[in-house]
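User: My collaborator sent over this chain with a note saying "see what the structure looks like." That's all I know about it. Can you take a look?
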Amino acid sequence: MSRQLRVGGMVPLTTLDYPGKLACVLFCQGCAWRCRYCHNPQLIPPRGAEEIAWPQVLRFLERRQGLLDAVVFSGGEATLQDSLPQAMAQVRQMGFGVGLHSAGIKPAAFARALPGVDWVGFDVKALAEECALITQVQGSGVANWRSLEMLLASGVDYECRTTVHWQLIDPSRLLTLAQRLSERGVKHFVVQQVRTATMLDSQLSRLSVANALPVLWDTLGNLFPRFELRG
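Assistant: Without extra context I'll predict from the sequence alone. Here is the result:
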């Protein structure tokens, strides 16, 4: 391919990043948003200090044929790289399923990637009108929710998930967000408690515990055929 995928990191084996599959995760370099709770801030710049060459990734995958079920393209935001569809096609030709973690930062780019995937873990950042409070980018909410609409219309298997830091989204807003997702036909919703060890915004509290909200979790569980609380 003319431009090779820029990979800023890799997890050789995971059972968590593609539900029900043994997978490898490729962390694609570059992101256009600056989410305040981002736990991989080293992946935000378009070029990384410790990138893994694409031919090296392919050699690794060749050795894992028959052992891994799938490859997950994560980030950063993988869809911002023009070479993503070709990279996914190469992985599929090797016999792997293809997963994608995305927030649909650019809907047109997200649409180009969708035909090449088997499953999407889609990050719904917040209510559309409040996304910029997290991403620090104006207009991000429109893009995030437009890409969600594309995903739901595509028929591709998915989960929608929202990362929660209670300084950025309170329980009432989370409930409103969940209600809007349910109204749009989302069937699988996951609430992820933020990882506070490393965050882009050092001013955010490292305490963000959500276990003591059983009524909220029960309510969300009644909105979706599948609801999960992680972290």
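A starting point for your reply to your collaborator: The two ends are 38 Å apart (CA to CA).
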